[in-house]
Design a protein that fits this description.
Layout (H helix, E strand, L loop, with lengths): L11 H16 L4 E5 L4 H8 L3 E6 L3 E6 L1 H13 L1
Antiparallel strand pairs: 1-3, 2-3
Length: about 80
């Protein structure tokens, strides 16, 4: 996948990620999961963003999960900084 260097390291992905989770958890308290290939920038991003690696699925993809409680705690911690 090609990523234009003009858009790298500007926090755009982080803002999109946080906006998505804020919206999702404003609608429900149900946990959410996603999958991505191992050893990718995406996998590293999700780990750094507080997602928990739970298992593999499909064709060796990593399954990451986030609960409402984990997201809420992460937001509280970030606001204290």
């Amino acid at each position: 996948m090609f990523v234009d260097p003009m858009f790298e390291k500007r926090g755009i992905g982080r803002r999109l990620h946080d906006t998505m989770l804020n919206w999702y958890f404003s609608q429900t308290r149900a946990g959410i999961w996603l999958g991505t290939a191992p050893r990718t920038r995406a996998a590293a991003f999700y780990r750094e963003s507080g997602w928990k690696e739970t298992c593999t699925h499909g064709k060796g993809e990593i399954r990451f999960e986030m609960s409402f409680e984990e997201w809420k705690q992460q937001q509280e911690t970030n606001s204290e900084r």
